[in-house]
Design a protein that fits this description.
Order of helices and strands: HHHEHEEEEEEH
Distance between the termini: 55 Å
Low-confidence stretches: none
């Protein structure tokens, strides 16, 4: 059972020896492939492919150490394949865009001049609160309040409804607001991409109250839900971001081709 590696005592060390030889052959082949690919590499995309080949060569023999300079070359071509991205946006959106583009070959830079890709994302909002509307409506309603017994034409007693006319007012106070949000995405540098977005959010709140001789069945009530300017902004911004996110995915695909 141990003939292939000799005696049992030596089989373990021989297994390591032959495994090293096998791993070195695999590493050497990946290294040769990387060298061959590097001779025609002209783009950052090509450099990343070369880096991947050198990474394969390094990983193949890594548990035994370094048999060549595959790790050095991997890091060298990885750096050559890095894409520098500059993002100009407000802090909230910038962090979201960076999260969508957080890949090992993308470096975020603070200088547009040194960037391969420049992403500008601008947002403007317009908030409006309408003038409060007040309306008062005079109402009247005849309601049965009791019954009485009266004689009909035949002299028979019958029950008759007794009505009371209620006169009262209903006051309505209405408030409305809205926020229009527009955004624009502009990508320049290694490629160009543009898009624009519009969203709006609104709210209203109406109070109804009664005064005068009000029937019991009528109670003060309200309709709608009032939202502050910040709440409307967050709502519209969330809707816009869902659209922008789809375009950032397209931008990422374009970046990977650089």
């Amino acid at each position: 059972a141990y003939r292939q590696y000799g005696s049992y005592k030596n089989s373990s060390s021989l297994a390591v020896k032959y495994d090293k030889q096998d791993k070195k052959q695999v590493s050497d082949q990946h290294y040769k492939d990387a060298v061959a690919l590097s001779r025609t590499a002209t783009s950052k995309y090509d450099y990343r492919r070369v880096a991947d080949k050198y990474a394969d060569a390094y990983k193949a023999y890594a548990k035994y150490g370094q048999v060549n300079d595959a790790q050095l070359q991997m890091n060298n071509y990885k750096n050559k394949g890095q894409i520098r991205v500059y993002i100009a946006a407000d802090s909230g959106l910038q962090s979201k865009v960076e999260k969508e583009l957080s890949y090992t070959f993308i470096d975020f830079t603070s200088s547009a001049a040194s960037a391969d890709v420049v992403i500008n994302l601008s947002i403007d909002s317009d908030y409006k609160k309408e003038h409060e509307k007040r309306r008062t409506e005079a109402l009247s309603e005849n309601i049965v309040v009791s019954h009485e017994m009266v004689k009909n034409d035949k002299g028979e007693l019958e029950k008759k409804n007794v009505y009371k006319e209620y006169k009262f007012n209903r006051k309505e106070i209405e408030n409305r607001n809205r926020l229009d949000l527009s955004a624009r995405l502009n990508v320049s540098g290694a490629f160009s991409y543009q898009n624009s977005y519009q969203e709006k959010a609104s709210s209203y709140y109406t109070e109804f109250s009664y005064s005068g001789d009000v029937p019991k069945k009528y109670k003060d009530y309200s309709e709608g839900r009032w939202k502050s300017e910040d709440q409307l902004y967050d709502e519209a911004n969330s809707d816009v971001w869902r659209k922008i996110k789809k375009d950032i995915a397209i931008v990422y695909d374009r970046i990977t081709d650089i």
